[in-house]
Amino acid sequence: MSLTARLKAEAEAAGFTMCRICGPGDIPKVPERLGAFLEKGRHGQMGWLEDRASWRGDPQVLWPEARSIIMLGESYTPDHDPMAILGAPERAAISVYAQNRDYHDIVKKRLKRLGRWLIAEAEAAGEEAEIKVFVDTAPVAEKPLGEAAGLGWQGKHTNLVSREMGSWFFLGSIFTTLDLERDAPETDHCGSCRRCLDICPTDAFPAPYQLDARRCISYLTIEHRGPVPEELREGLGNRIYGCDDCLAVCPWNKFAAEASDIRYAAREDLLAPDLAELASLDDAGFRARFSGSPIKRIGRDRFVRNVAYAIGNSGSARLRPAAAALAEDPDETVRDAALWALARLPA
Questions:
Q1: Binding residue per annotation — 193?
Q2: Are residues 139 and 169 in the same domain?
Q3: Fewer CB within a 10 Å sphere, N or C end of the chain?
């Protein structure tokens, strides 16, 4: 059995759902596409996309010694309907990926273990090997690389879709100096379907296969600092951290694999938390509640800002006291959100 074949078997044994391989020069269209995205300002406040565009656009610039890129998919398919919570406006909708432990930590540890195995196997065969592992926090074009490696294709919502994993999977990569066998790239299987485009509450897709992050709820609730533009606030609904609408409606989810790790299963207190309870969190309470969660990184003020918008969209008089309390908050953006909410709620 070749090293590449053994690697794929080891990846599955380590907990990854899929493992495919491409080369660092297999995404030649990315620099032009990324440049057009940045030129139109569709990255919003994500200045880091622009700062390291040359690295993100070409893996050979990021690490010239790399000869192969191992792309790995790790399923986090929910065991509940993620759209059901949208019908409970007094409760908060949290993106599926953030309902338990931070996937960055889980996936990175798994990647490092697999990388160490690969180095040991190469050395046993008398070949030197180096690796670098990445999970969503480095300037790596993971979705185009995933398509080039054959994990899936970038759908009309710009996320990766897989015939084996549906839409619910994390991506990780191992860059290596080893020359491994390549897989064939995946082709587009969206056809005439446009469910992901039509479901978007804030019209974040100017055209199929294009995203304007400035209108995307995931961007607005996680990356955007300061007040959310008023014309977009109603579209947030009760989504306080991320949005799964375009993922959840994808027909390919009927083939989705089960979540690969129990730590991705939703915590009971994050499935449908009460908005009033979340609005009462101070900084210490926020940190305690979301320790080990990806939600922690946005900080208490941005989180409570999102909660205030959800309260304003709830139409619930019961939540007026929570909004009134936030109208006295030390943070100016939270106060603005609370006053907006109060103006919309019945007395």
A1: yes
A2: yes
A3: C
